User: What shape does this take?
Amino acid sequence: MAVRVLGSINIDVIARVDRLPRPGETVIASQTLRLPGGKGANQAVAAARMGASVALVAAIGDDEGGRWMLAGLEAAGVGVAGVAKLEGVPTGSAYITVDAKGENQIIVAPGANGVFEAALLPRASPENVVLAQLEVPVATLAAAFAAPARLRMLNAAPAVPEAARLFDRVDILIVNEHELAAYAGRVESRGLDETVATARSLLARPDQLVIVTLGSAGAVAIWRDRHFHAPAMPVEPLDTVGAGDCFCGALAALLDEGLAVEQALPIANAAAALCTLSPGAVPAMPSRAAVEAVCCARAT
Assistant: This one.
């Protein structure tokens, strides 16, 4: 059993400011950091720290940044044999501004992620849980989801209209409220019942489910005939960068273990909450022991 993550590798350049700039405005950063990131790398590390055997399938440039990222991923317990090194393109990068409330703005320069083609995909295993996101080409993901897998999960973020053609190929679709509205072609839902109804419009097969992350309200899993809401663990966030990726990676690891969605969702929520208490994405992914400790503390 293993989690196979397909996705992006980025070098995150993070600037901390008192407040996010308005259009045309310059603000002064109190701190800048260079940290490992990218939705694929984030989710792979999150799954590995939850105890899964993880293989990352991705692309980097043949440059210092790519070598730095590979070393960090290996140190985090992620298998990188499926990471292709591409000449003539840089490793992906993301420029992130985080305010005093933990809110952020992100600009991504895809680099090698944008030219990660299906021909670079290694042979798939039907035993794998496959988890992907949308910072790599949709055509590459379509090829990956056509291969055998035990469970196919798509975190359809960032919202890309073309990605809707993947929905009937996945078993679990994960979106936040903004992405749900974008794919459903509606304004954002008001209230849990409306969110559930909107999410059901994205179901393409009877055996699928949609999971909608709700920020401070937790997450809800939606099937055709029922739904399950797991409240969030209340925290005062320092930095929300990577929290959604932490949720997805943790969830994949827990489902790979054999937990039911209803068992896994509260634990993945706790992992995401802990992620917001530390700066950055990859460095903030919590260990399984830390997540279990807060879950046990809340249960007593």
